[in-house]
Write a structure and sequence with these properties.
The protein has ten helices and 21 strands. The protein is α+β, with helices and mostly antiparallel strands.
């Protein structure tokens, strides 16, 4: 039985209309064509089951929701991300108990989707490539706005693409849908898109995305920093292998990282927990620099490939960095001291970039631009010297 058969259609229509109203009032939906796309696209068709986060006995757990249950429709049309896969396992009708897990696929919260689609600045007739099909809801919005024949989408998980294809067809859309690495399998050299939008984050912009976008075309994506901070960037393709564009002022933009670019968290954690013979010194970077996502994004540029772990033990709060090569650092917020070891001194790199950032005038991420020139990707402050490489 489909979700459409198990819900009150009038209630769903009313909830969808209310969602659009709220997105418009918040300034997330600004233009009439996108407002209409959201009005005619039923989110619940793409998420007949999902998990929402909640508190169970004082513990954070994922709570299953299914079509036909009393709280289902309200949750489906809430401005929240809806998790549809944990640790690579899709939710099924047999999931009824709260559970633990790490989200690996979801339907993004509608307000972020709306802002990104507005930032994409499509025109009638544009061809769009969507990296990360997920549930298919965003694909349906693109199809409603431009026509399904103008939309190509991809996802790395064949189960996800098969399910999305069925739900898109049920909603009346038949875009081109592929299974593969969305950072690589964009298409042949003759394929050129006017717009490319990614619904997963990346450490670096895949060169295939630039190559697949026509000169003058736009990419919209989120960069994921190693210190759990993100930046929404909108580069325009300026030549072969070249693009340039601003980081947008949208601090809430974040997505799960591309699976092929995901850090080796286990190896990084092993570096932190098994590290020995570390040297302790006073940190030149103050504790407050680690409190804001904007500053953490800048600092993270110095430690590509690292993972961040936070602790709050009896001795106080700590920030731990680990790298698969065995390098590690533990920063104690209360004392402002850092202990580090392994083949590289990670915190030395943090201190260096913090000093460079201050010398440049302490720009926020949205004061920077991204320049792509072949394999070289640089974040830089316009009109000022300096800049930082994206090294993965």
């Amino acid at each position: 039985m489909t979700a459409a058969h198990r819900v009150d259609s009038k209630e769903a229509d009313a909830l969808r209309a209310d969602l659009v109203r709220r997105l418009v009032e918040a300034g997330d939906l600004r233009t009439t064509p996108w407002q209409e796309a959201f009005r005619v696209t039923a989110r619940h068709l793409f998420v007949p089951s999902f998990w929402t986060v909640g508190d169970v006995g004082g513990r954070r757990r994922w709570i299953p929701r299914h079509a036909g249950e009393p709280a289902y429709l309200a949750a489906a049309y809430a401005d929240e991300s809806l998790v549809t896969q944990l640790d690579g396992r899709d939710i099924t009708d047999d999931d009824h108990e709260p559970t633990k897990g790490t989200p690996t696929s979801s339907s993004t919260r509608p307000s972020l989707m709306a802002r990104m689609l507005e930032h994409l600045d499509v025109r009638d007739g544009d061809r769009v490539f969507e990296a990360g099909c997920g549930t298919g809801y965003n694909t349906a919005l693109l199809s409603a706005r431009l026509g399904a024949e103008q939309v190509t989408t991809i996802d790395i998980d064949p189960a996800i693409t098969a399910t999305a294809a069925r739900r898109l067809a049920a909603a009346g859309h038949t875009p081109t849908l592929r299974t593969g690495d969305g950072g690589a399998a964009v298409g042949s050299a003759r394929d050129r898109y006017d717009r490319l939008i990614a619904t997963f984050s990346v450490r670096r912009v895949p060169s295939a995305w630039v190559d697949a976008t026509r000169i003058g075309g736009v990419l919209l994506l989120t960069l994921a920093g190693p210190l759990d901070a993100y930046a929404l960037v909108r580069p325009t393709v300026t030549g072969s292998g070249q693009a340039d564009g601003p980081i947008l002022a949208d601090p809430t933009a974040s997505f799960m990282i591309s699976r092929p670019q995901s850090p080796d968290i286990r190896a990084a954690w092993a570096a932190v927990t098994e590290g020995r013979d570390g040297a302790t010194r006073a940190s030149e970077t103050p504790p407050a620099a680690l409190d804001g996502a904007d500053t953490r994004f800048i600092l993270g540029l110095a430690v590509p490939g690292c993972s961040r772990f936070t602790g709050n033990e009896a001795g106080g709060r700590s920030t731990n960095l680990g790298h698969p090569d065995g390098s590690w650092a533990t920063f104690e917020h209360a004392t402002g001291t850092v202990t580090q070891g392994g083949p590289r001194r990670l915190w030395d790199a943090i201190d260096t970039i913090h000093q460079e950032w201050q010398a440049t005038g302490s720009p926020a991420p949205h004061d920077l631009r991204l320049r792509i020139d072949g394999t070289r990707q640089t974040l830089y402050p316009p009109g000022k010297p300096g800049g930082w490489r994206l090294d993965g």
